[in-house]
């Protein structure tokens, strides 16, 4: 069997570009000048690589950086507006690997598509490298990934050897009722699971293979986490006061995190994006779990 002479990361990029209809090393004059992004994490990667000038359309959920607010919206994750996308005349639409239906439909419309992974921390790094390659910014992408990996190592080293609390990371739940309703939490083997480990914790929900299991209040009691981090994303709507959100947990008196006052509510979308800002979330999470640790500032 013939072995590739390309390094692993470049070979992966080459495959992505090949199936997207691009050459393995696109000439600079053939770089995509009009890019549509159908996910917030892809949009953040493009801007982190200083390629915002190429972005002509984004999903309705893209909200960072501020410049994104002025761009046309082309639907959501599962309901892209194909008519709006085609009107923008993109050279390339960048999707997440889980947006297979959109890829099929865009191909039928003759639109060039690139798909990038997003499930794990290394997927985020690979996505940065792939997007950097297709934009002709390989060096900038490698430097960004290098900074992110360095930050993750420094955080992990700062909390090494310390007791590891069991952490329940809630990534979605209803907030309108005074009672705690069904909760979606970070499961094992995914992006958030890895961040919990790097931050010096242990994921309290390690059962099964579901990326985001749904728990009832009884399920939380059974897991009995030491720390609960409640990520509240109410995009486009006013967020309930933090005190009200905390109060919804207080009925779970048998849970260690409730008894010890170790429930933390974070609002906004920053922590929920598997993109280059993960280093900020990782550092903040490590400070929360180990307030006495000497932790570095997030990578710029």
Largest sheet: 6 strands, mixed
Structural class: alpha/beta
Query: In total, how many domains does the architecture comprise?
Result: 2
CA gyration radius, whole angstroms: 20 Å
> What's the architecture of the largest domain, going by CATH?
3-Layer(aba) Sandwich
Tell me what portion of residues adopts beta-strand conformation.
5-15%
Could you give me the name of the CATH homologous superfamily of the largest domain? Nitrogenase molybdenum iron protein domain
Report the top-level CATH class of the largest domain.
Answer: Alpha Beta
* Strands, total number: 10
C-alpha geometry: globular
Order of helices and strands: HEHEHEHEHHEEHEEHEHHEH
Provide keyphrases for this structure.
single chain, 6-stranded mixed beta sheet, 11 helices, Rossmann fold, 4-stranded parallel beta sheet, alpha/beta, disordered N terminus
Blueprint (SSEs and pairs):
Layout: H1 8-20, E1 35-37, H2 40-48, E2 55-58, H3 82-87, E3 92-96, H4 100-108, E4 113-116, H5 121-134, H6 138-158, E5 166-173, E6 183-185, H7 191-198, E7 202-203, E8 214-215, H8 217-223, E9 227-232, H9 242-247, H10 256-259, E10 263-267, H11 278-289
Parallel strand pairs: 1-2, 1-3, 3-4, 5-7, 5-9, 9-10
Antiparallel strand pairs: 5-6, 6-8
Helix pairs in contact: 1-5, 5-6, 6-11
Short note summarizing the structure:
By secondary structure, this protein is α/β, with parallel strands linked by helices. It has helices at residues 8-20, 40-48, 82-87, 100-108, 121-134, 138-158, 191-198, 217-223, 242-247, 256-259, 278-289; strands at 35-37, 55-58, 92-96, 113-116, 166-173, 183-185, 202-203, 214-215, 227-232, 263-267.
């Amino acid at each position: 069997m013939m072995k590739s002479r390309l390094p692993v990361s470049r070979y992966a990029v080459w495959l992505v570009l090949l199936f997207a209809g691009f050459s393995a090393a696109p000439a600079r004059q053939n770089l995509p000048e009009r890019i549509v992004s159908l996910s917030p994490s892809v949009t953040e990667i493009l801007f982190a690589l200083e390629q915002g000038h190429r972005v002509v359309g984004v999903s309705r959920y893209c909200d960072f950086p501020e410049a994104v607010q002025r761009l046309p919206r082309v639907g959501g994750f599962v309901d892209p507006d194909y008519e709006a996308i085609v009107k923008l005349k993109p050279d390339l639409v960048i999707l997440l690997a889980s947006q297979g239906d959109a890829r099929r439909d865009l191909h039928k419309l003759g639109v060039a598509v690139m798909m990038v992974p997003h499930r794990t921390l290394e997927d985020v790094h690979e996505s940065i490298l792939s997007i950097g390659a297709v934009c002709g910014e390989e060096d900038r992408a490698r430097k960004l990934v290098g900074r992110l990996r360095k930050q993750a190592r420094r955080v992990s080293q700062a909390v090494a050897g310390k007791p590891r609390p069991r952490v329940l990371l809630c990534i979605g739940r209803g907030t309108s009722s005074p009672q705690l309703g069904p909760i979606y939490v970070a499961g094992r083997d995914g992006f958030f699971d890895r961040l919990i480990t790097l931050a010096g914790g242990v994921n309290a929900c390690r059962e099964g293979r579901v990326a985001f299991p749904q728990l009832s209040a009884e399920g939380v009691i059974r897991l009995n986490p030491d720390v609960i981090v409640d990520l509240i994303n109410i995009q486009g709507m006013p967020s309930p006061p933090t005190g009200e959100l905390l109060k919804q947990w207080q009925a779970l008196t048998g849970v260690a995190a409730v008894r010890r006052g170790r429930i933390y509510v974070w609002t906004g979308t920053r922590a929920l994006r598997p993109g280059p800002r993960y280093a900020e979330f990782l550092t903040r999470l490590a400070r929360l779990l180990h307030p006495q640790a000497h932790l570095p500032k997030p990578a710029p």
